[in-house]
């Protein structure tokens, strides 16, 4: 039986197919009745589902992250597509086609990983190359990087999103850096690699991405510096001392990449590489998040999305 | 005799050579004595010159923009290099080597112009290509574009700076656009071409770049739209009507390229192309202006520039 | 039968009378049931109407802008008056008394139009007078001006609101200008005429006022300059060239009338006329919108309106 | 002998005439030499004077506020006209023509005072009229109002400036109020009268206007309420009790007239009269201060003033 | 029968006990049905109660502030605990145990009052001591101070909260002042006493705390100065004149205690005492309000409160 | 011979005594002449000295940090006291009385150090006590802490200033913490100890305090976390593992102590201890810096300091 991806579901459609239960909440309405709010997901997006007249028994019959078979009907409510779910049932993972649920199939993961290995391996600066190898050779690090998200909401908020954003930014750096001879492109590429690594500890990726205690108390910028420091200690234990100034520049690239104090950057960029990293990061993140706003918009009015408070505007959805 | 470029002059050096008198002012000190402040320029930069005990006769012996032969001695004053000029004399332009004074020699101009022709000529969209041809075929426009500056101070503030910034940005657009399939790269390239054209009317480039009345009263954003409108009328008189929606998108690219209301943008970017144009423009302008801050800095303290109020920080000057 | 104006309807009242259906939306509740939200309007204001248990057939039985006969009962919900509509039926426009629905009856329209003709015709400056005549003589322009709104929400957000705001501001200019001899009152009056004309293209007035694509992509400030430029071309084709400096000042009055960058003004006012126009425009708009907040408030607490987030405060409602 | 008003002095002119010594300071230069900086004033403006090689004897030979006879020569220094004074001598006040020094001759004072009496006397509200009479009948208050300034710098910063600003604003209120039937014009006029009275205590007008301790510690807004309270006590001791609500509204007009928290307004305007008062006050103050910037500008470049940091822009000086 | 304090009620609990009906509202749902929203209170906190299918008769059977006996069941709705009330009945105050409802029993009130008397009585400065006695000897003032709240929401928003905040701040002043010899601790203590007294008039404490007309039109800062002025007149009528400078400093302490213009402070602190008062006030208020956020949070996620928009963050709830 | 402390020097005084040459700069005036600017220091403050007609020989005859014997005369220039130095001569350190130059004599240093030992040693939490001992037992750390400054300008900008600020803040924490039972006072005290330790690396204290490269690239907040991490590794190598949650809270105290994003805080305070630490730190720093502004002010006008742009106001200087 053919599954319709969430992104292709339309209003008023009967649905009988598999989803991933990304989140579930048992709620009480004002009159005291119980219902379940589901966040249903597949590779193409997410969909809110309402299961009325529910109880604890149904709620406990599946867990967050399980695959579930749902019967229901879609509708537009408050400008967003949702599904009235009349039945939900836990599925055996073996029953589902994994490629329909994971944005990153093994191939895509492999491609990005290879690209990362190539970019770091191709560096001429021996210290950066050794440091890169220390990260690449850390199996636990790599296995977490493959599944890490870059955000809870907004841009690249899906497993593998951190790897994609990281590699994309490294490639942008490789492309743009050489246009400005005064920029040290290798430093820029390595900064792109490092800049968001702290998110591996800031976010927990079990089920939906969410903030860890450490993430909220310390934040990915400081954690990123801690991860770099630890890896430099590893490199130094096996090689000569890491150059002091190069280390300061790497730390600065992490510390300043938010670009402005009001965005939680403890330092402003003071090197051309830090400045460029901040702007390219911003560009990639904004294009990704604006694209998501456009793609996930369900406004009936054909040319414009609904007003989006996070970006303070409506976006134009091109005809043609 | 070999001329030392301004950028290579050091403290305490005796100077006897040609300069361009970019600006001159006759001033009175508190006690009533007169002196002349010169802005001396060559291809590599500018230098402030002080001619003490001057009078109207000396002041009137040369004009802004003239080449002058100066005798004097350099010194650091308030952290900046300047020259105590003891003699200044108007030169015949035939006496100077033009390539020492013009940042854009004929070759560089030609290269950028060819690049522009190629970029606009290579567009597949027939309307954009016709519109590009209308600009390229307007001799007066092209001759002004060759010598226009992109700013009075800050980035690309020299004759030809507008052309360089425009072509650089078009090339960035051509490089970055294809990485995001959801972006219409041709539209982005054309927006890069249009975005600052209003500066041809906003700035007057006789002698030093300065604001025109129209520039201060109306501004390059609105002027740019007026220039586009005029050129579209030209195209429409010779061809079919210009597509309404394409025109609105081009106008929007000009109108929103400052990105934020507080930077004088009457509209926020609401298309992916406008968003990307704003960020790439910002990136190119910031790299250029930070580079200028670093290059023109004379702080003795080796690793850091002086505090620069315009960018709100000191910059790190790498030891390499 | 006597109709009760919307502004005089009270809580808990049975209603059986005509309205204009300014807007209608078919919605689905969380359980999947359908209902219609109506925006009912007459000359005195608007009222939200809820028609429960509706379906497509009822929804399609009338169009936005139609006159409808409604049966229902008013109530206060979330601090605002609304009507539970039990029946809605399309009416023949011939059945309604137009003066009960149009804020501008023919007389008021005529009065404002005459006032506009008189103000523009009374100008001594021949260039301004000819330009004014070009606008007044453009029938399409005038017919749109009569019905244009000045905003989607906030101040003067009704058909004819633009004409009222324009003429009111011109009269304020005529009153206040002569108190400051350094101000060119004719320029100020003409600036008041021009300042919001771009809203004729920014807003669409079919049914409820809403933004056009051009309005959102380009904005009424730039559109206003385009309209001025076009009309100056008309004047110049019939007369001598329009004085360059006068034109710049008119453009500046449009371009700077929002007064501050953060309100989307691409230029700050730099002439006394532009400064004064900005302040008088602000005064007239604020008085109008605060008055609307007070008049449309339904808070039970007698002396104060509810907190209004748009203006960041509660307003005092005088006991008299 | 004919005196040239300060506003008509030009560069390079020999001067031998009377001035008012508005201020004087004995300074030491970096090498240890002493000189005097004078602020010379007449009705038309002020002029900075430099007396080199001075000593305590010269400095003590006249006081601030004295009329002095100066010999010297004008020059432009740092873009402003100043005078190199070679001789300064104290004059007998009887020797000078007072009308050349006082912006307010007796006639102008009398005219404004009469206008004030008429505006307050013409009020129909008996409580406001009695309160107005209490102020008008307070001789000490009136004699201070005649000579008070409205500011130390910026707008209306001269003796009598407070009276002029007050009466001008009351007249604007009388003109604009009736255009909005929802506004209580008498309340608006009385608010205009009260709004800046606290400046009589905030500023000291002996010699140049300067802040008093009370002005800096408490401020004219709170002082103004204290003055109103005291006067209401006076009225109440002779009449019936002053209506509570009217009093609150008057206090609110004073308390909120700065309009925004960031301008030191402890409350935002919440009545239409307070809103209108704030905007008219702002309009009158801004026109006055922009006019002063234009009139006192000495930039050689004909069309534009120098950049003025207080208003964040250059102003256009019309060619007429 | 033992009453469970509100703060100890859990989800899904049956409740049959007394509450104070702090507020009640009769609402209409979208379909036209009526229901009552109750704010139930006791000493430990407040709880929202929903009484469905209500009518005017039930609504009128008790008043705001009455004690009521409620039967119902608790539940979590939208992340907050509420109670579905099925029965509500007015109680005779004699039936309830007052100490379960009043945050301030007589003992606590007495303790704070004694502490206040001791702090003011212990001042060495005779003028401050006399002024303190004038306040303490004003019975009406004291009886209102005992029951005043310090805010409508946020910190110390309960009867007696003003007294607690005032005494707490005075004690902080007594503790911290002596650590800085340059600070006049007695002035600081007296400023702490005065700083929020205007809230006695700004807020009405009948039933729930709410703003008075005077509070909204004039504000507690200006009212506080009026109260001080009145009391100084009392002191002066019985003693010698109050020292001018001391009075200005007291007024300044009130006027500047919000610390920044944008928080409605008409003056910035310019004395060390005013600076310190502002910071200690801020510290005490913030600790109190963050504590309330943590205590009243019902988020299921153990370590963090829900996001609180007023403070712009989630707070960490320690596991200990 | 008796030395007059800098803070007691008056205008027009002849000076012949020892100073510490805190800084020296060889400058060129506009005419090309050379002079030396000295920063002369002693325990009581600093004084600018001008040595005219100097040359390299004089400049090289002493170093920054040397004691010098100066002959000269004081004067007020631009509102600040300075000295015209006519002779400067290097002194043997043995010739000077060290207690006249060091703000921290051995006794004061010893007292603060003992206080620190006592505060850390008195902690009941074994992990905090062990961690404190690790810092106290690190001789290099302690010897740098004794001489560290807390800032380059502003508050506590002198050798030993960091120790004083740290101990003062710890004592404030010990005083204020127990007033709020919900606060963990030991955690607060330890946070006070840690919060600025990163300044030991951020600032270099040879001669005048100045920023290090690491300080500018990484900043004292991130450095502070690195120092903590290193010390925890030390503790863990000798003891059991440090509790994870306690470590996160300590890191959070450092990371959030600037309190607001715009002050370079990468995280907002989310625990009561972090909130309190931020406010007490702010209080102590502000009192110290306002005190310095008042003490170092030389305005002739008795009651007020000059306008200080860093704090945006004038301060009141109390009489008596």
Strand content of chain A: 15-25%
* CATH architectural label of the largest domain in chain A: Orthogonal Bundle
Query: Using CB atoms under 8 Å apart, which protein chain pair has the greatest interface?
Result: A-B, 34 and 34 residues
Oligomeric organization of the protein chains: homohexamer
Helix-strand category of chain A: alpha+beta
Helix count from the secondary structure assignment of chain A: 11
> How does the major sheet of chain A shape up?
5 strands, mixed, barrel
What are the low-pLDDT stretches of chain A, counting only 5+ consecutive residues below 50?
A: none
Shape of chain A: elongated
User: What is the CA-CA span between the terminal residues of chain A?
Assistant: 33 Å
In angstroms, what is the radius of gyration of chain A? 22 Å
Mean pLDDT of chain A: 89
Number of domains of chain A: 2
What's the CATH first level of the largest domain in chain A? Mainly Alpha
Query: Reading side by side through the largest sheet of chain A, how are the strands ordered?
Result: 1-2-3-5-4
Helical percent range of chain A?
40-55%
The CATH topology assignment of the largest domain in chain A is Hypothetical protein af1432
| N-to-C order of helices and strands of chain A | EEEHEEHHHHHHEEHHHH
Number of strands of chain A: 7
Enzyme class (chains A, B, C, D, E, F): hydrolase
EC number (chains A, B, C, D, E, F): 3.1.-.-
Protein name (chains A, B, C, D, E, F): 3'-5' exoribonuclease YhaM
Domain HD/PDEase (chains A, B, C, D, E, F): 158-295
Topology summary:
6 copies of one chain form a homohexamer.
Chain A (H helix, E strand, L loop, with lengths): L13 E15 L5 E9 L2 E7 L4 H5 L6 E11 L2 E11 L15 H16 L4 H11 L2 H9 L13 H16 L8 H10 L4 H4 E2 L5 E2 L1 H5 L2 H19 L5 H12 L16 H24 L25
Parallel strand pairs in A: 3-5
Antiparallel strand pairs in A: 1-2, 1-4, 2-3, 4-5, 6-7
Helix pairs in contact in A: 2-5, 3-9, 5-6, 5-11, 6-10, 6-11, 9-10
């Amino acid at each position: 039986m053919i599954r319709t991806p969430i992104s292709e579901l339309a209003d008023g459609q009967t649905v009988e197919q598999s989803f991933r239960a990304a989140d579930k909440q048992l709620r009480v309405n004002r009159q005291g009745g119980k219902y379940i709010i589901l966040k249903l997901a597949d590779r193409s997006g997410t969909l809110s589902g309402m299961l009325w007249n529910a109880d604890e028994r149904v709620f406990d019959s599946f867990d967050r992250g399980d695959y579930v078979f749902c019967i229901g009907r879609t509708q537009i409510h408050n400008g967003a597509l949702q599904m009235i779910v009349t039945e939900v049932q836990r599925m055996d993972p073996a029953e589902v086609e994994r490629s329909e649920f994971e944005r990153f199939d093994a191939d895509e993961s492999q491609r990005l990983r290879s690209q990362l290995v190539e970019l770091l391996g191709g560096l001429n600066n021996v210290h950066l190359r050794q440091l890169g190898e220390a990260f690449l050779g850390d199996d636990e690090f790599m296995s977490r990087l493959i599944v890490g998200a870059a955000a809870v909401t907004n841009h690249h908020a899906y497993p593998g999103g951190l790897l994609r954003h990281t590699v994309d930014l490294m490639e942008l750096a490789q492309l743009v850096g050489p246009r400005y001879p005064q920029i040290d492109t290798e430093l820029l590429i390595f900064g792109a690699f490092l800049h968001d690594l702290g998110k591996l500890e800031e976010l927990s990726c079990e089920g939906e991405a969410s903030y860890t205690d450490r993430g909220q108390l310390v934040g990915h910028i400081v954690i990123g510096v801690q991860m770099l420091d630890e890896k430099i200690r590893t490199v130094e234990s096996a090689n000569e001392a890491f150059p002091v100034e190069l280390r300061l520049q790497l730390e600065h690239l992490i510390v300043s990449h938010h670009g402005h104090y009001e965005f939680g950057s403890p330092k402003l960029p003071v090197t051309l590489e830090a400045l460029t990293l901040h702007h390219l990061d911003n560009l990639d993140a904004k294009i990704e998040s604006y694209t998501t706003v456009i793609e996930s918009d369900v406004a009936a009015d054909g040319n414009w999305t609904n007003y989006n408070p996070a970006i303070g505007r409506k976006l134009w959805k091109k005809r043609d």
